[in-house]
Specification:
This protein is of the alpha/beta class and about 450 residues long. It has 19 helices and nine strands. The longest helix is centred in the N-terminal third of the chain and has 21 residues.
Length: about 450
């Protein structure tokens, strides 16, 4: 009796198609002041719970049974559905968005679970997890900057995977900047730019755009994307950009477009440290069912730096050799593999970083080695110590000697710059810029 009354109220409130598809197949029993509402399967009952529980509770209040609880179960029984009138367009579930998502092929292993988190990528990983979970406390627009093979594609694919799995109704468009340009050119030729604008301005909940730096010189695409960004940002939609360059480093882009790219949270992925490289090698070896001794893992992590794809290449090569020779990888195999995929590193010292920072800040090396505590000297000195700690293998004492300081001063400098990076996006941008300079000129 109670369920029949609820159905009568719902039939007046809901569209006929929604009522026929989602309410009619339900069954109901009452147990100890609890409505046990059954549906054909878990997906069905989950959808009804998410979208119609509030309507059912309102109906209970109207019939004076607000003290009753509602519980959904999957019964496995599927009642016959009334036939719907024929349509010219494909059948769409009620309350589902009309526009489809546009998603490039996703790598099945590029998920958050498979991403190895370390000091070099922890912040970027955290930001991407938040945006995927629709947590916009750090902003609804993020710009992910990383060099080749450092994981930006992995994180963007992971965002798409999580949204698709947890919120399949989300209108997600994930493509490269080249694909966006090609799509726009196609609409221009077909004289259908209105459809292009509608797709990315009105029918988009999440926009993921990879290789944004390839838009340099493409003025028309920049203009259209800037318009879409304005609409999406004003309506609180999520936008994720990925690039190997910061917005300021991309050549031949309009000032307004550059400003929009810079308006969100900019975060970088740096080359993985030794501990993270060890974790990556161990994980890749496990996935490939390859047994590696701790000594070999340490050797690989010490000798392969920067590009994570080199780590993957080494594991694949060792796996192939191990299978062909039917033996566990040894150092002979490892050294032969490394000789084919790595380039000898240039030795970098604290003095080299100190001299580069002196040039960038237009101060003298003597100033950095002096006892001056003026901000114009102290900040470059602390920055140089922080970067020396990050990019050299020197001890704290060795770094301190380059600045006429002891190891405790280096510890203080590293802690100070780390805190400033976390609190001040401008300083974080400066440090990222200087890190790129070091990688290009010294490494």
């Amino acid at each position: 009796m109670i369920w029949q009354q609820i159905k009568e109220i719902l039939s007046q409130k809901l569209p006929e198609s929604a009522y026929s598809l989602w309410i009619t197949p339900l069954s109901c029993t009452v147990e100890n002041q609890t409505l046990m509402i059954g549906g054909p399967d878990k997906f069905f009952t989950s959808w009804v719970s998410d979208n119609y529980r509030a309507h059912i509770n309102e109906a209970l209040q109207l019939i004076g049974s607000s003290n009753m609880n509602v519980h959904f179960i999957a019964t496995g029984k599927n009642k016959s559905q009334p036939l719907l009138p024929p349509r010219q367009e494909p059948l769409r579930l009620p309350n589902m968005p009309k526009a489809k998502s546009t998603i490039r092929t996703l790598h099945p292993r590029y998920t958050f679970d498979e991403f190895m988190v370390g000091e070099s990528n922890a912040f970027a990983h955290s930001v991407c997890e938040s945006i995927a979970a629709n947590d916009t406390s750090m902003g609804s627009c993020i710009y992910l900057k990383a060099g080749t093979g450092l994981g930006k594609s992995h994180l963007t694919h992971a965002v798409a995977h999580q949204i698709i799995n947890n919120s399949p109704a989300t209108r997600l468009h994930f493509l490269t900047a080249q694909q966006l340009t090609a799509e726009m050119v196609h609409h221009i030729k077909d004289n259908s730019m209105a459809r292009f604008k509608e797709k990315y301005q009105k029918h988009c909940d999440v926009l993921l755009l990879d290789d944004i730096h390839t838009l340099n010189g493409r003025t028309k695409t920049q203009t259209e994307l800037a318009e879409a960004m304005d609409v999406l940002m004003e309506s609180g939609k999520r936008v994720v950009f990925a690039s190997s360059l910061t917005p300021q480093e991309i050549p031949n882009i309009e000032t307004g477009f550059r400003s929009r790219l810079s308006s969100g949270l900019i975060t970088s992925i740096n080359p993985p440290d030794l501990y993270t490289r060890i974790k990556i090698i161990q994980r890749k070896a496990l996935v490939n069912n390859l047994s590696l001794s701790d000594e070999i893992v340490d050797y690989l992590a010490t000798n392969i730096k920067g590009d994570i794809r080199q780590l993957e290449s080494a594991i694949v090569s060792l796996k192939a050799q191990s299978s062909l020779l039917q033996m566990t990888p040894n150092f002979t195999m490892v050294k032969e593999t490394l000789s084919n995929i790595t380039i000898p590193d240039r030795q970098i010292s604290s003095e080299m970083i100190r001299d580069l920072i002196a040039v960038q800040f237009k101060v003298s090396v003597a100033d950095l080695k002096s006892k001056s505590r003026k901000k114009a000297i102290a900040f470059p000195r602390q920055t140089a110590m922080y970067l020396a700690r990050k990019y050299t293998e020197g001890s704290l004492a060795d770094i301190g000697k380059a600045f006429n300081r002891d190891h405790s001063t280096v510890v203080h400098a590293v802690r100070t710059i780390t805190q400033k990076i976390a609190r001040n996006s401008s300083i974080r941008g400066q440090i990222d810029y200087l890190a790129d300079k070091i990688k290009k000129q010294l490494l």
